[in-house]
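note to self — DONT lose this again. spent like an hour looking for the file last time. sequence + predicted structure for the chain T wanted, 1247 res
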Amino acid sequence: VPNTARWPPAVSDKIDNDVNGTDRTLPTPSLSNGGDFRPLFVRDSAFVTKDIGQSTPYPCADNTITVTISTDVPLISNTAVHCRPKITIMGLKHSQNTQSKLPVTGNGAYVSEGNWIRTSGTLDVEVTPDTVINAYRDNTLSIGLVNWAEPAKSPNIEATFTFRTGALSMHKDGVRVLPGVFDVKPGDAEPGKIFAARFTVKNIGQSVPYPGCLNTITMTLATNVPLLTKCPTYLRISNLKDASLAATNPPSSVSDATEGWALGTTIKGAPYTPQSSGPISLTGFEHVTRNGSDFWSSPGFCESTDRMGSRYFKERCSPSGGMCTVRGNPGLAMWENGYVDSWSGALAATSALNDYGGSGLYKTASACSNGDGYTSGGNAGGADFTIDKRLTMWVAESTVADEKYVVQFSIRNPIVRNPSPDVQIEGRIGDDMIGGWQYILDKRSSARTGLTAADDNLQFTSSASSSIGTVENSQTGIATSFCSHRGVSHSMDKDKQTVLCCTSCSKMARAVKEDLGRTDTAGDGQLSSQGDAEPLKVHQPFFCTKIIGQSTPWPCSNNTLTVTISANTFFKNASSVITITGLNGAYHPSGPIMLKDGPSGLGHNNYFGAGFTGAHTIGYGEWTQSASPSLKLFVNKDTDCATDYVFSFEVTNPADEQGKQNIMIEASNVGDSEATFSNGVGIKPMLMSHDMITDLSMAVPPILYAAPGNAAALSIWRLDWLSGTGIKQTTEYPCANNTITVQFKSNIPLLLTARCMPKITLAGINNAVAKLNADGKMPLVDISNMGGMKAGGGVAMWTPGTSDASPATLVMNLNSSTTEGVLYSFSFDVENPAKHQACPASKLTGSGCGNYNGGAAVTETIPNIDAGGTPAKKCSMFIETLDMTTKNIRQNSPFPCTLNTIFVEVQSNVDLIPRCTPKVTISGLVNTAGPANSVIPIEDRTGAMLIPAAGSQGTWTQTAGSLELMIDSPMTAGTTYVFAFNVSNGNEGKAAETVRIQTTLQSQAIPSSDPAYMETFAFANMAYTNTVADSDFNPMYINPAGIGRDGTRDLHPGFIRSPMFFTHTSTQSTHHPCDDNVITVNLKPNVPMIKSCGFTMTITGLTGTDTPDDMALMITETTSGSVFNATSKWARSGQIDLADAAGLMRGGEDYSFTFGVRNQAPGQPAPTVNMNLKQTGTSLNVVQALAPPTNTAMTATTLYIENPMLNVSVVSYNDHPCNEHTIMIELNPLNVNLNRNCQRKITISGL
């Protein structure tokens, strides 16, 4: 056949030029040896395409196996000649399909059903009868398998078909990345590859760390494969047990016991509260915050995108033949409360263990049963056993790979502190229909990238040598347990970082997260290294809220104590007892005490009773009255954990002040501990917190003056006298009738009760003279004019004082209660003492209600409340110091030997009341010479009727120069009184005296020997006045016009002028020698010259006269009156003794007299002529020169005598010698007369 020959039409129809695959072009027919055109030559058939892949590697999943096949020959089905070609696939293992026929889908080239052998994985599929499958055309068929439960590698899969001998390995899909498969990689599409299940998320956390309380455990779970219902699958959470202590080692002493433990040597069970085995909800419980403001389901690690997984699980399954034989209830799980997981020690072949809080547990030689109600385990018959608790969840609805499912379940926590145990999770997929299964492995410890193993989805770690099989012990993480339980469990990832909400009922008042710096020996159970969200971490029982407050701090008042308690555990009906101690000072009769509901109206009072049974139980407590009263509360209704319970009860406050008390609270048999521990579990005594926030001033009714902090329980106020409290009087004058008024306002009511009898005591009424009733009691006036309080009978008890240090007191018993903040007052009358006293410390004492702590009465110094006058002088029992505010004195005669009238002007600052025996003494008038009598008349000069005793007379004491006056009628303060009396001046000059005045007062009721009650105003210099008129001088003795004033001294009492002459001059009538000379003397004395005063006057220095010695000179007075005798004795020495004739020279009067002498012949200058004034019996010797008046000529100066001077003229009438010579001599005196009395002669010589 030429090379150009073509295929016969019959042949070309069988060739598909569009065939795909590796052999895309039909080879040119071979011409050698005849080739394909040789008659009856049949090619040796082969696969052009033999690809196979799967849709999922998930265990138990519906898996679509896709086969793509093409051959190099057409597959011709011809039933007429019995030609029935088929495709055979071998090695499709790892399925659960046990049927003999499998549906086949495709494009119609193959029949719809193939023959199936599961054990070998062989599938035969025939070509559709009487059809032709073209050569080189890919045909795809699919079959549906169900993967088995076990992890597996893809097996070797072979294929063959009719027309060929021998099988060839198929080309498995090692390239395609399967869509929708978690953690997929190339190769996962190889048929028969089954993933090993592992956890991708296994988080667990809790909502409540409170002991004995319902706790919502939250788990967030995800696996790398879906958990499918085709294979009964369970997840089991185990090791939910108490690891806090060994059951056989409870605390044995107080030093060993931590808060929350009760002492005992026997533990009936472990510290869990028994919880029955059985179905448990996976919905959990919402945890309500203490203030009720929000709700919270513990999140664990869950996120907002996670799926609530409760409906995906159920509590039972009972698998058989790859399916659950029991339907179960979605949303539930099975709780096993007494699962025995270990045993050690010898034990009889069969032993029942019906103690330790559970029952139904026994062990045989080969197996053991599960009991109910057990917790951590115990010891029996010499064998130790441990008890586990576990939760089993069966898959109720298929999950999605790596989808996070959140489930919650609620259990009761242990009743004492507990570290979070190592919670384990076990997952098992299967048994499937053929009995296959696998445990779910743990999470990878590292990222998948970089693993060298080809099938890392089949192993737990990166080790390529790990084998995967059906034997449990060959799987990584295997754990073999007691009682024929075998399984693989893994530690769950506990929530160590979440800070739980709603956990303020804890030591830290908030949740904590993990902190490896904390110690795990923390007695409170919270401050261990673990976080509070870690499952079954449990705090020690304690009161997180233990507040106690009061309604009033008033002593003696009925007081409502309000208690708010909340514990991190619950209190059980007919088991728990709460005791409050240290209620010091409170009073209530021993026995039942009524409890009142709190403000919420939730009936919290009815949770407690005075006992578990009996009358007055519900809504009462049991009160024990003692030195330290206590209240016992028997729980009659289960309480909730971490929930405030508020109730109150009423007691009577003590009478004495006290601070807030150290009130303790404790509890016994908390939770279900009485059923678990021989002595139960308690909360040891803890100090209660006081209400330091409530402001009682805002209460109804309000407590005046209250502030936050005053609601602290049994903090009792001390009595305090408030602003407005004080004392005043009506007068500060000595001996006056005085009304004392006391006002008081207290911070508390002074309550008159059976236990309190208040009274008020006033002290500091120093030296008051009481005006008592006949019964010796002090009458009160104006009692409580500002309120309703009454004193007992309107009188008070008076206790006289003995000294300033122990003054009188007034005691007033109250016969009705007072009201706080109301101003009260009362008054009483006394007589002031005579003596001055400063403001005494007026002290007001309240007793019987509001005493100091310890019982001492409250005494406070109270202020003056009088607004008028000088406050310092208005305070109670201030007695004014007697002061003669005006004390002027003067005299009307400063002259010796004269009668002197003393004028006294006085004014007192206080009333001088006769009953005070006022006496005025003026002293220091010692320059007087009289009066001689001791009683002298007193002259009133004011008309004020100042009437001294003894008929306007005073008592004079000459030696002291004093006058004493007794005041018989009142002298009004501020009024000036003037009186006068006469004394006789002494005979010589004296300086002014220091005159003093003294006033004394004396209370009539006090003996004069008691100086404490006598007021003496010490002598003070009296003021002098110069306002006296001249008429006050006696004109008998003076010439007022000439007497003059000696400054103001003339008016100073006791001042006596020293005698002298204002005027003392002399002149002469001639200065001629031998002439009779008349001497004129002018005198004006400064004081009266009274003869009786013994004055003598002598003129000396009259030298240069020819008057004979002892000559009686005639004295001629040229002024009116006869003062001197007519003759006076002359002494040639020039002295004249003047004799006083009339006995008086008036002071200030001008006197002039003359006497005659004969000048001597010789001239002389004027001698010094003196007037010598002396006084008999005194040292007076006044010498005053009798000088001429001013501007007097020298020739008039006394006894100035001028020598004669002559003018001589000689005239000679004959100048001849020897002649008789007549000489005429003329004598002419130039300056003086030549008096013959001089017997002068003229001698002419030289003739």
